[in-house]
Amino acid sequence: MLSSHVVMNGALVAKAQATVSVDTPAFRYGAMVFEGIRVYADDAGRLHCFRHLDHLTRLRDSMRVLRFLPVPSLAELDSLLLGSLEQLEVDHDAHVRVMVYVDGSGPMWDSGPLGTVVMATSITSSLPGCREARGWITSWRRIDGAAMPPRVKSAANYQNSRLGVLEARAAGADVALFLDRDGRLTEAHGSCVLVVRHGTVATPTRTSGILESVTRDTLLTLLRDEGVEVEERDIDRIELTNADELILCGSMAEVTALTAVGDVELPGGAGPVAGLLGARYEDVVRARHPRSTDWCTPLAR
Ligand code: PMP
After folding, report:
1. I need a surface site. Which of 8, 169, 189, 216 has the fewest CB within 10 A?
2. Which residue from 112, 165, 106, 159 is spatially nearest to 139, judged by alpha carbons?
3. Which of 180, 192, 277, 285 to mutate to test the pocket of ligand 1 (most atoms within 8 A of CB)?
4. Taking CB atoms and a 6 Å cutoff, what residues make up the pocket around ligand 1?
């Protein structure tokens, strides 16, 4: 796999040569949207892109909200992504970043021209196990949809994530958990959160200041398939510290169990729901699950 290269505007370019001018709205104002998509090998070694059309649909939505023009069709983004994976010779588990940015030297409100970059990085999955991490409720509030919609996956939104995770790390934790202005849980700095208590799984609604996570949707579907009760609702701060399990989910985080929130230790390690999700999520991404047919796209090579 060519991790040393990226596909920039359709051409294979060495990373050192894949540059963006300091005069672009992308550099000057953070006018860039992106997706992080996983490629997983099945048991026969064949590679599959996981739910890439859902990611690319969200990428189009991000462009539409931020008035990037022209918004490429889903078919165009699909062929950009799959073509780039071939150019980058992706041949094992990978994390793939698709970025679209406002190029040129125009003002803050310019809609284009647009540039694209696709890059792939080797990554080792923790599945079917769970990573473990320590959480921290940051004093920074999650960006408000009325000001900077968290449902848009723009690079600029991650400055809010950055403030939170800097604070978490300074406190000896790994992951920032964000509340909204009313003190309700939103999401973590780069993942969504599931709260397990008394056998029920709860997670904030899609309008609670979260990114509409593909992994969240996947795990909720898998839990409902297993007959586990799932509630999408407001979550109070105390539910973070009296939970039986707290589970983070995301394309990068996969299934990650929190072992503590601030100074409150949780039962520790991956509990039964995290264990179940780690196993089912691995089945689904490695194309062994009935749901895989809809969610896994085999790559040509
Ligand atoms: N929230 C934030 C802020 C994220 O950065 C991510 C990672 N993309 C997620 C949630 C999880 O989204 P997904 O499952 O689509 O990767």
Report:
1. 169
2. 165
3. 192
4. 36, 161, 187, 190-192, 211, 213-216, 250-251
Classify 172 in phi/psi space as left (phi over 0), alpha (psi -120 to 50) or beta: left
CA 44, CA 230: separation in Å to the nearest integer? 34
- Asked if 262 and 173 touch (Cβ cutoff 8 Å), the reply is yes
Which structure tokens are listed for 295? Answer: 């969610």
Mean pLDDT over each residue of the chain, to the nearest integer: 97
Q: In this structure, are strands 94-102 and 114-122 parallel, antiparallel, or unpaired?
A: antiparallel
- pLDDT for position 200: 95
pLDDT surpasses 70 at 126 = yes
Over residues 147-153, the mean pLDDT reads 96
pLDDT tops 80 at residue 271: yes
For the cut 70, the answer to whether the pLDDT of residue 133 exceeds it is: yes
> What distances in angstroms separate CA 80 from CA 97, 164, 245, 253, 297, one per listed residue?
12, 33, 39, 25, 15
Structural contact between residues 127 and 254, judged by C-beta atoms closer than 8 angstroms: yes
Which residue bears the tokens 């799984």? 201
pLDDT digits 0-9 by tens, 248-262: 999 999 999 999 999
Residues 6+ away with beta carbon under 8 Å from 110: 25, 31, 102, 104
Q: What is the mean pLDDT of residues 235-253?
A: 96
Give distance in angstroms: CA of 106 to centre of ligand 1: 30
Rounded Cα distance between 87 and 81, Å, is 10
| Nearest-CA residue for atom 12 of ligand 1 | 213
- What is the pairing mode between strands 185-188 and 94-102? unpaired
pLDDT at residue 301 greater than cutoff 70: no
